[in-house]
């Protein structure tokens, strides 16, 4: 059984350069009751965060994205711009491919690909609930 959404009125911003994964995640979240925005790279996502007037309740971003800044850079920008906006990272790469400080700092917010629909939805819900409790 899939978890019920938390704060479905706030959009989840999903960022991934892989169109298949982007659409897969978007559909899972939409079918689970969440509003979803998408971006195919860090720059596009950053523009949505600073320019779009819709409420964003969580950012879920891939780490490796060519032709733009990566997920770590996006996450660090979000933390400086809006400290209370939760940022979750996704990756299919081996963790030793990343600078150790980045991986260690973000490991609790890291979702490894491939993931099941249930794992994704539980990960999102748990982090939205944690963010809601900290407000």
Question: How would the blueprint of this fold be written?
Answer:
Layout: E1 11-15, H1 19-31, E2 36-39, H2 42-51, E3 56-62, H3 71-81, E4 87-91, H4 100-106, E5 110-112, H5 117-134
Helix pairs in contact: 2-3
Describe the structure.
With 135 residues, this protein is an alpha/beta fold. The chain is built from five helices and five strands. A five-stranded parallel beta sheet has the order 2-1-3-4-5, sandwiched between helices. Strand 4, helix 4 (100-106) and strand 5 form a beta-alpha-beta unit. The longest helix has 18 residues, at 117-134. The mean pLDDT is 87.
CATH topology: Rossmann fold
Q: Roughly what percent helix?
A: 40-55%
Q: Which ranges are low-confidence, i.e. pLDDT below 50, for 5 or more consecutive residues?
A: none
Number of helices: 5
**Which structural class do you get from the secondary structure elements?**
alpha/beta
Main CATH class: Alpha Beta
Question: Spatial order of the strands in the main sheet?
Answer: 2-1-3-4-5
Short account of what is shown:
With 135 residues, the protein is α/β, with parallel strands linked by helices.
What structural keywords apply?
five-stranded parallel sheet, 135 residues, alpha/beta, globular, Rossmann fold, 18% strand, 5 helices
